[in-house]
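Let's sit down with a protein and look at its sequence and fold side by side. Please make up or recall a protein chain and show it to me in full. Label the sequence line and the structure token line clearly, so we can match residues to local backbone shapes. Go ahead whenever you are ready, and we will take it from there.
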Amino acid sequence: MPYSELIKNYENVRKYLRDFYLYGFRSRSDYDAKSLRTYDDTRRRIGSWLDEYMCFRNTPDGKIVFISIDSRQNEANPLFRTWKSKSFTAGDITLHFILMDILNEDEGLPLSSVMDALSDYSEGFTEPRIFDESTVRKKLKEYISEGIVTEKKSGKRVLYLKGKSIPPANPEITRFFSETAPLGVIGSFIDDKNEESCRFIRIKHHYLTDVLDSDVLLSIFIAMRQNMAVRISYTSKNNKEITDTVLPLKIKVSTQNGREYLMGRSLNRNRITSTRIDRITGIKPSDEVMDRERAVRQLESMEPFIWGVVAGGRKQHILLEIRYEEYEKFIPQRLMRERRNGKVTVVRDGLIRFEADVYDLTEMFPWLRTFIGRIVTLQMSDKKLEQRFMDDIREMGRLYAVQ
């Protein structure tokens, strides 16, 4: 089959895109999930979308391919381009433009008139493409569901009209939305239609790869709106494929690394779980009936003890005391701002205490490390975790020759 830049299934390139961007240290022989020809076709396809960001490095193990993007230099996330490469047939594209020319926003046409107009169009071609009534009806139904076409009743007849044109959107709003919000790719499509482009927005800590999960995230949002459970397939930390039925309740986005998590009620494990969305490889609606109100109440009762996304298990207590100088008022201010579900108490001038009960203390470790050098007291109910944290500090001191 000849190589094509267009794709039918986005999941086929999603993993390659993430590997090339996040890791970028694998050679051609390391990609053993598919054939080498599949790798070559996918690499060329990605190169056609992101040519100016593709980089190569020669190593003893072979040529390494990776994507390098500097968010400070880009007006928009380049990965949006990967969503604008959907494959189509000659019949699809021909029927689309003919229907858009036949229909208008003011006067509706019945299906019979649409078919007559299609017949008139075919007379202008030496090798006309013929569309049967069933194909046209299905295409109109598809466009109605997407808002491209609308329908109205006139007596017993159904009339079809072109969907109302959307006025141009504020380019500053659409650009900001596209670069910061979940499903920002929608804003990118809208932004493409703007005659003017917003060129001055730059995101310092820009988590570009979230756009690769847009399809999965959309399916989750649809399920949440319809109060439906979903059947998901995902890859665990141990690289095992797991299938579960989950009732989606909330999406959490980490401000530290940009990762998106699905918080939901798992049918298989009978508890609230969190799943990294970038690990989800398949999702579809489920017929399983689950009590949403009960699941929401359960999650709400757990929220005061969730530091990150781990929900459930034995609660663990932490007590942290931090010193600061008179001119460092930003330290207690920062602690008040970032305490989440913890309690902050001023012990005396220059000493502040933080206490919290959480399900997983290890989620706090990256945050706790930012106070190294100021920690006066650190106590955890789980002494093994406390020892692990202190051992990490000692090891870091050894590496940097700090006594």
User: Anything to note?
Assistant: The first helix runs from residue 11 to 23. Residues 33 and 288 are 32 Å apart (CA to CA). The mean pLDDT is 88. The radius of gyration is 27 Å.
